[in-house]
Amino acid sequence: MPGTGAGPARTGMTETAAGMRCYAVRRVNPFEGVLEVIALPRARAYSPNGTVWQVQVLAARPDHTWRSGSNAPLVEQFFGFGLWDADAGLHRIPANPVMDIGAMQAAADALVTVLEQAVAGIPFPLTDNLECWSVDDRGFPIALLATSDDPDRIDDIRVTHWMATHSADHGFFAPSLAERGAAPAGSGDGTRRHAEQLEQRVRAAEATRAWYRRLTDGSGQRLRPDGHDDVLPLSVFPTLGLRSAWPDEPTNALVRDYLEWSAPRLLTLQHLPLGDRERLEQVACRQAVELANWRRLYPAVVDARRVEAACVEARLRSAR
User: Fold this and answer.
1) What is the secondary structure of 149-164 as a DSSP string?
2) Segment holding 213, helix H or strand E
């Protein structure tokens, strides 16, 4: 599952008596919001928007089924089985006919019977309380690079330099750069120069990288191989996953442009201070379509009337 934002994950997953687990993880580097997950022992569904859910089922690998007469050990993994939403139900995608389709369908059916009720509980609590940060020469976090909910897997996570957007995403435009005539956005020549300008400044400030376990009070306990457990207070971790205070005003302005552009997605974060959420709402409402796409995953809304007006605007635009 993608690990995957900012803001500490301070609560555990919701688990029912039937073994169903409902939880969420952040999608980071670049930040793409929060992934909602509903899992049974043999099937799971996940969604980046809370509306359309990718259904996967646990099944024997096709090579094992093909060699079912052998003594090879059973190897199971999750396979994509279909898409589900509350209006259309489950839409299956083709599966390898060698696989046990009957067992896969039974697992998917068991999940579908609980999906509609479970979806009503989104957004689910975040569980990815392990965070890898880009750290400056003072030992303070700069930018969030990766998250996980499994300490045994963090050594297997490939941590890359911080990214403002995906390499194919040319959508970030920084008014502060345009005003100074620096680094044209390049939307016509297929470049992402504004994003690259920001990435270069963030990477230049990095001295090292470090994993932290975020504790219930928001502080972060550094995970060290030597067993030392240095703890940083909540106040030094950037709330939005990227440091907002920089030594020079051009970088401050560029970061501010980026966070405002990211506002509809950043509002999916949990445990945001009220002031941060209110400021993000104000700028996110200027991006009505984007806000409407993410609205279902917002854990709180400060000004419901303003947000609803933006959603109405988005519906009107989509109807044209």
Assistant:
1) S-TTTGGGS------S
2) strand 208-214
